[in-house]
Specification:
6-stranded mixed beta sheet; 4 helices; alpha/beta
């Protein structure tokens, strides 16, 4: 029986095979997960219904199970049809998840199309598609080194 929050069998399987430097994408419901999937990545579709689960809920489960050394957010657009006037509210949700887990993590940002490229590299091992409907909620995690203390 698992003691941490992450209980999904396929996600645990993929993370168990992953190592330092592997990338995990938590994708919102708008992300083109099937067409932008990394060549070696597994896709787990958790998008049960609109808004369920959220990207922040998935992040909370992952931080309970793996060490995370970096996180990059898809930079929101300030002009054009998908423009936002301010940073996406989900970003504060991510900060709260990390604070609650005592995880000191600085978030980087990657421009939208460069984010697709980054999430499609060979070291990307897993995409978790959520039902999150918020724009620019995608987060690309880098797995860190497990502390053996």
């Amino acid at each position: 029986m698992l003691k941490y929050q992450l209980i999904h069998p396929k996600i645990n399987e993929v993370l168990g095979r992953a190592g330092h430097g592997s990338k995990v994408l938590i994708a919102d419901g708008n992300y083109p997960a099937s067409s932008a999937l990394g060549a070696k990545a597994e896709l787990v579709s958790l998008n049960l219904s609109p808004g369920i689960p959220t990207c922040a809920q998935v992040l909370a489960a992952l931080v309970s199970a793996i060490p995370i050394e970096a996180a990059d957010l898809m930079m929101y657009q300030t002009t054009g049809p998908y423009a936002l006037a301010e940073e996406p509210s989900v970003w504060e949700d991510y900060r709260k998840v990390c604070r609650d887990a005592s995880l000191d993590l600085d978030f980087g940002t990657i421009e939208r199309f460069a984010f697709y490229e980054a999430a499609g590299k060979p070291n990307q091992v897993l995409t978790i598609q959520t039902g999150d409907q918020r724009k620019f909620a995608n987060i690309l995690l880098t797995i860190g080194v497990r502390d053996m203390d």
